[in-house]
Amino acid sequence: MKILRSFLLTLLMSLISVSYSSAKSDLNLIPLPQSIEYKRGYFITGTDVKLLAANNDARLTAELLNTWLKQTLGYTLPIVDQCTRDEKFIAISVLPSDSSEQYRLIVGKTSVLLEGGAAGLVRGSSTLLQLLFHAEMQKTKKGSRIPCMIIHDQPEFSYRGVHLDVCRHFFPVAFVKRYIDQLAMHKMNTFHWHLTDDQGWRIEIKKYPKLTSVGGWRNGSMVGPYRNQQFDTLRYGGFYTQEEIREVVAYAAERQITVVPEIEMPGHAQAALAAYPEYSCTGKVAEVAKGWGVFEDVFCVKDSTFNFLEDILTEVIALFPSTYIHIGGDECPKERWKVCPRCIETKYANNIRDEHELQSYFIQRIEKFLNSKGRKIIGWDEILEGGLAPNATVMSWRGIDGGIAAARSGHQAIMTPGTHCYFDHYQGERAMEPLAFGGYTPLEKVYSFRPIPDSLTATEAKFIIGAQANLWTEYMYNDRQVQYMLHPRLCALSEVLWSDSTSRDLTGFYKRIQSHQAFLDRFNWNYSTSWMQPALQIEGGTEVPSLKLSLKAKVPATISTAFTNGSELPIFETYRKPLSISTSGTLFVRSVAGGKEKEVKYPFEFSKSTGAKVELVVPGSRSYANPGSTLTDGITGVYPWTGKHWVGWYGKDAVVQLDLGIERQVDSVVVVYLHDPVSWIHAPKQIVCSNSGNGAKSTSVPTDKAINRTVIYVGEKMKNLGLLIQSIGKNPEGSAGAGDDGWMFVSEILVY
Description:
Layout: H1 2-15, E1 35-45, E2 50-53, H2 56-72, E3 79-80, E4 89-94, E5 103-107, E6 111-116, H3 118-137, E7 144-153, E8 159-165, H4 173-185, E9 190-194, E10 196-197, E11 200-201, H5 210-213, E12 217-219, E13 222-223, E14 230-231, E15 235-237, H6 242-254, E16 258-265, H7 270-275, H8 303-319, E17 324-328, H9 335-339, H10 341-349, H11 355-372, E18 376-380, E19 393-396, H12 401-408, E20 413-415, H13 418-421, E21 425-426, E22 438-440, H14 443-447, H15 458-461, E23 464-469, H16 479-486, H17 489-498, H18 506-522, E24 535-540, E25 547-552, E26 558-564, E27 573-574, E28 579-581, E29 585-593, E30 596-604, E31 613-616, E32 647-650, E33 654-674, E34 686-689, E35 707-726, E36 743-751
Parallel strand pairs: 2-3, 2-4, 4-6, 8-9, 8-23, 9-16, 16-17, 17-18, 18-19, 19-20, 20-23, 21-22
Antiparallel strand pairs: 1-7, 5-6, 5-7, 10-11, 12-15, 13-14, 24-25, 25-28, 26-27, 26-29, 29-30, 31-33, 32-36, 33-35, 33-36, 34-35
């Protein structure tokens, strides 16, 4: 240690008073460190560099770094416990008293020092790995060089999580380990392992072997979009043995990743109840669910159920050392509870007024058991219903309101809203993307996420401990699809949660992502390049109907376009200025950047209203508050839907005004809308042409397809066209989200 400190003193003295100005983003690091102080000179890397690890704890970090170096650069560095002054080395210094994730990295001309506690050294190793990799990629005649610098670094948020659903689709241990490595390399610290659901029970419980022998397998799976309700007949499943669970937990611990298991209750329990139907309300044997969605069979609220679940949790606790156990708590239908004699008996015996309070009773009873074992619970934000368990942490997924409510009540909260953190959503143009659940969460939206709402006070904000990305795998059939949906959005979230929010720069981030793709390539990691597609801006043309189309690249790129009406092959020309179109057809956009090519296409449907000015008298709600021009931009949304081409209203009627430019004969108005009840999205109740003298209104509102069109026959001349699009209001009884406000989505208004 004296030798190491001597080296440190020499290194610091060599760097004093020679700093110069440079931006943090000059380095291709993801996430950006909190502080970088550049110095003059460079450290020349290569295979002649030694890893100086003076004790066993330091050696563990050195071995992990070598593991990653082998995967990225194809070599390892010799690990030594001492070296001479004339040798080049990277010294790893353990600060045993430091339990935080902070670290310091000092790069000198002849040596490098990485110091911190056990967690800090792993986080610093991910930074060092990227520096070594990019130095090799930018190698010159002078060698592979890292600028001399001092990095002081620590995370903004203590909880930085990534979830993986292995119930809808199962993934082997080898891939789970690769997944954990990606988390560690991007400075995430929690792996949320979703192990049980309606579609499969994936964790061995020795006391109840049928959970895996029966509950771990289903006799078919949904194929294609949810609405189609099509299934194959293939037996599908799998599970992790307890030995495999221990292996994964140990692997994660070496990378300073905490594994939080999720055992779903009281809903999402059909796989468990297929194995042990005596713990349901009906006692009838049900099959492991083949489809996606929410199912009515849930755990019965009776003593034997709690004994069953406590037995399961006892084995889970023995496998996972994490403080937290995730108990789900979401999307629990209560129809069975309303008529179940045992549940009714539990209500009366405990003075419980309704089924929401019954769920709270269920969660609180489970919490007491876990607290007695020294553990804490996390649940999805539905655990707020009926009263929050005393020590529970809330994971807010239905927006951020659940997290706000938890923080204001003095409970810790983790933000994971579907709008920004659901990585099962589309991230590019639907027509060019693999099938996904729905929604639209592009890279820039993730990067814009701010976990702490402005509405919280400074005291309340301290209860927001971090955020999490969720990967639900209904449509992720293999590990390559999981990889594609994870990256590069994980890169964005890692920077949101680790780096200083004041240094957030989307343009600089795009440049670093472009370089970072080569880093992911070395791991043979499949990632999306959808973020590379140039941004398309659509404006109304000089007259209606016409459009002006502008393209803007996110990184330096060569862009070419072609427009065809379908009768001829596209002929690409270099894009130099905005395009004007006035007929239906398809725009093809091709961009080349950093040696990678991305092509997308945009179909346009023209009518008398295309390009017309639109006023939304009632704006769209929350994240689907797209501008009114979305309704006349010529692009009709597709299914599975993405939010990009829809305006959404939550529990509200829509009032829309169109300016057609001049007085025109309006024979009919066509409104394109979405009907997807499982996503709480319903067709309008009725549509009325408010500017029509004859009181024109829709005669029918079809719901036989996901994307529907209703026609309002007008037969009048008008310049200004008003529409009242009436919402269904609440989700109907028996549908998903029954009783809560429903969504109404409109994509296009066409005038003929």
